[in-house]
Design brief:
Keywords: Antiport, Ion transport, Membrane, Sodium, Sodium transport, Transmembrane, Transmembrane helix, Transport. With about 475 residues, the chain is mainly alpha-helical. The protein contains 23 helices and no strands.
């Protein structure tokens, strides 16, 4: 991954570290020590395990997941630094952690822009308008089951799966609140669809984004996973279809109008995506730089909305979706503010991601991932290992799993890299706790969509999972 100079260079050593990171990294790899049998290695594994237990118990302890993971990251690297300093190799550990921090920084900038656009569209009521349109269509339960699933599949290819799933769940809850059976099976369908949709596009999931930004797979190559992703969604949906009630829900009328500039912000987001692709593929610049360039589109449009401001019409509060989160100006009217959308980032998730990157980076630097890679991709074999990755992703968040694989960087064909991208993306659908979408919907449809509700459909979801892998081998066999 390309590295960016981020601070002023104060010495020749500092200059070499930032201007020639690949050389420094190569030196660090050459001089790094295998500490997997050292007390530091055991301490690192213990810290990471304890931190992850706290992450799993987040709802019970009411402790945000970023806190234990960031503490573990700091302690792991302090332990590593002490050992390397004692042996006169501080520069080696320093180069390694700088590499991880720069990797995280690039992903952070990318995600900040993407989330800023999603928040802006939400504030302009793009998603509220879509929900109201669906509610007003007067669809049957079975029609709504398919419409919400298909929309979740395609929207999650450019938005994160949690936002997409919650959007569709709001529609399901509004229309079918009196039919728990419909809500339960539709939530399962939504989770599967949202995870499948994020697997074939670099913008759909953080794991897919990481693979693209690492330069392992070209942007357009990811779309070879489109048909396997469709199969992953369609097979469980087709079998769950028969469990959806044939009834017609009571008619509901909802009214939500978009705010000024909503459609233009959607167009600007698409232009930003194209800019990021152009930067990465044609200019060989980091995609994050293209995304930051795209953020200026939103900034300038925000300025245009500001100087041409007219008081927004009184849209009222939609009883289906609750109050609005827009910020009024001093006069009490609503104005578009880009910095308000930046402030509304999901910082807990972003900081959790930081902790994961540094924890896994530290464990990799200690030497554990080298041994794990030798077992998984040497003794076990690439295909069984990559299929297993999906199963692991149902139990452990797919972000640390994929970051670990990228840190190992096993020698694999393009077909195998696409396979692990697919399995890491859709494997989380096997359990409700396997993805952010599932966890979010358990809170949104509390008591209706539960762990056991999802587990009931695990066999058909697993059938879709295995079928998508088979279709990938069938369609993309030339890439293996």
């Amino acid at each position: 991954m390309k590295h960016l100079t981020t601070i002023l260079l104060g010495s020749l050593t500092g200059a070499g570290l930032f201007l020639f990171p690949s050389l420094v990294l190569a030196e660090s790899v050459a001089q790094s020590m295998d500490l997997s049998g050292h007390w530091v290695g055991f301490l690192a594994l213990g810290l990471f395990t304890v931190a992850y237990v706290f992450v799993v118990l987040e709802e019970v302890l009411e402790l945000r997941k970023s806190k234990p993971m960031m503490v573990a990251a700091a302690l792991i690297w302090v332990a590593i630094a002490l050992v390397y300093k004692d042996r006169g190799l501080s520069s080696v550990a320093q180069a390694a952690i700088r590499h991880d921090v720069l990797d995280y920084g690039e992903l952070l900038l990318f995600l900040i822009v993407s989330i800023a656009y999603i928040n802006a569209m939400e504030e302009r009521r793009v998603f509220d308008s879509l929900r109201a349109w669906l509610v007003n269509k007067g669809l049957s339960y079975r029609q709504l089951f398919w419409v919400t699933g298909i929309l979740a599949f395609f929207i999650s290819s450019v938005s994160n799966n949690m936002t997409t799933a919650m959007l569709m769940c709001a529609v399901v809850m509004a229309v079918g609140k009196d039919n728990a059976k419909f809500v339960g099976v539709s939530c399962v369908n939504t989770v599967v669809a949202a995870n499948a949709g994020g697997a074939f596009c670099p913008f759909g999931d953080i794991t897919t984004l990481m693979v693209w930004q690492k330069g392992v797979i070209e942007f357009w190559t990811f779309f070879k996973l489109f048909v396997p992703s469709v199969v992953n969604f369609l097979i469980p949906a087709a079998l769950m279809h028969f469990a959806v009630p044939k009834e017609q829900p009571a008619s509901i009328r909802a009214r939500t109008a978009t705010r000024r500039g909503a459609k233009r912000i959607v167009v600007l987001f698409l232009m930003t995506v194209l800019t990021a692709v152009l930067f990465q593929n044609n200019l060989q610049l980091p995609a994050a730089v293209g995304m930051m360039a795209g953020l200026t589109y939103l900034q300038m449009f925000g300025y245009f909305l500001h100087i041409t401001h007219q008081d927004e019409p009184e849209l009222g509060v939609d009883p289906l979706y609750g109050d609005d989160n827009a910020e009024p100006d001093d006069s009490g009217s609503l104005r578009f503010d880009i910095f308000h959308h930046l402030a509304r980032m999901e910082w807990d998730t972003l900081l959790f991601f930081y902790g994961v990157v540094l924890c896994v980076g530290g464990i990799n630097f200690i030497g554990y991932l080298h041994h794990l890679s030798g077992f998984l991709y040497g003794e076990l074999g690439a295909t069984p290992a990559n299929v297993l990755v999906g199963v692991i992703s149902a139990l452990i968040d797919n972000i640390p799993v994929m970051f670990a694989i990228l840190a190992m960087h096993p020698e694999m064909s393009e077909g195998q890299w696409l396979l692990v991208t697919l399995t890491a993306g859709v494997g989380g659908s096997l359990l409700s706790v396997g993805s952010a979408a599932g966890v979010a919907l358990m809170g949104q449809a509390k008591g209706i969509y539960t762990f056991m509700t999802h587990l009931k459909w695990a066999p058909v979801i697993a059938l879709g999972y295995l079928s998508s892998i088979g279709v990938h081998f069938l369609m993309n066999g030339g890439l293996f």
